[in-house]
């Protein structure tokens, strides 16, 4: 009988609870999002998020157990996101998981949220270590070699905004709705990406680091020029600006991933595939760029289903299973960590983003 783990996720604005088995079956995956609570503020408000997690965690866990057809006593271990993220939310989840563990006697596993994303291709596609992972979301942007459940090497990352953050801010500049990624993508579909010349930041540098905040500034400049000249933006202006911006982000992500592949391929143990995670991986232009380099380099492309690419607790339960296998259960005291880099050997690239401290 495979063991079953209950995963708990509350590091940003989604309250998640899920039951996953050792043999890679997702028995349930509940996500309660807080989009409505934050909509009026144009971003995630940490205090509101923490309170909403505290209110919804028990309901989410009860729903996850019910949907899985399990009682708490059937759960073999509890895996909880212990960072990085908005500290109030992380604390809500950690305290909740501690309470469940104390009440049920189940052991606890502290999971790094980014490790949850990074290990997802093993849950969905059973990929072999090591593999290359491009993690691109509203709060994160990293190119990682994933060598084991707690063995990651960062090849590069953003030195300022995460790509999703840049999409969201740019959508706001264009008067498009949030979340900005899908709104920009829809507008870009009818736009001419060549009308405006957007920069491709850091492509002149031969490393795998990226920068997206200058792109947003370039977009603002072009927008302001149009507003000064004609008093506002036409729908076509909006689409052309969105198209130019999206093409620039896609080019930067694609080229830097190409460099990461070249680096990784020269390793003693080359990667088995190129995997993606994070909400930005939904973008078709970005996906097409990655698929092209995958085909060019012969490195298979692995994109888990979107519901498992964005924040969820199934990935946390799964990471807990992987960590437990290597004996990481209860290895460290289970405290909430706002900052928790996956690769502690690399210097920090940036400070704090809209979704809290970045790893
Ligand atoms: O992984 P995710 O659901 O949440 C975290 O950031 O943790 O990612 C959300 C981000 C948002 O910034 C959103 O604008 C972006 O992913 N996103 C997209 C697309 N769909 C979502 N960005 C570009 N194109 C998309 N189609
Ligand atoms: Zn995430």
Topology:
Blueprint: E1 4-9, E2 14-21, E3 26-33, H1 35-38, H2 46-68, E4 77-83, H3 87-104, E5 108-112, H4 113-125, E6 131-136, E7 141-148, E8 151-157, H5 163-173, H6 180-188, H7 213-230, H8 235-265, E9 274-277, H9 284-297, E10 301-302, H10 306-309, H11 314-325, E11 352-353, E12 356-357
Parallel strand pairs: 1-4, 4-5, 6-9, 9-10
Antiparallel strand pairs: 1-2, 2-3, 6-7, 7-8, 11-12
Helix pairs in contact: 2-3, 4-11, 5-6, 5-7, 5-8, 6-8, 7-8, 8-9
Bound molecules: 5'-O-[(R)-(carboxyoxy)(hydroxy)phosphoryl]adenosine and zinc ion.
Written description of the protein model:
The protein has 359 residues and is α/β, with parallel strands linked by helices. It has 2 domains: 4-120 and 307-355, ATPase, nucleotide binding domain (Nucleotidyltransferase, domain 5, 2-Layer Sandwich); 130-305, Nucleotidyltransferase, domain 5 (2-Layer Sandwich), CATH 3.30.420. The protein is built from 11 helices and 12 strands. The chain has helices at residues 35-38, 46-68, 87-104, 113-125, 163-173, 180-188, 213-230, 235-265, 284-297, 306-309, 314-325, and strands at residues 4-9, 14-21, 26-33, 77-83, 108-112, 131-136, 141-148, 151-157, 274-277, 301-302, 352-353, 356-357. The chain has a 5-stranded mixed beta sheet with strand order 3-2-1-4-5, with helices on both faces. A 5-stranded mixed beta sheet has the order 8-7-6-9-10, sandwiched between helices. It has a two-stranded antiparallel sheet with strand order 11-12. Helix 5 (163-173) packs across helix 6 (180-188) and helix 8 runs parallel beside helix 9 (284-297). The protein is globular and about 65 Å long. The two termini are 37 Å apart. Zinc ion binds at residues 113, 117, 137, 311.
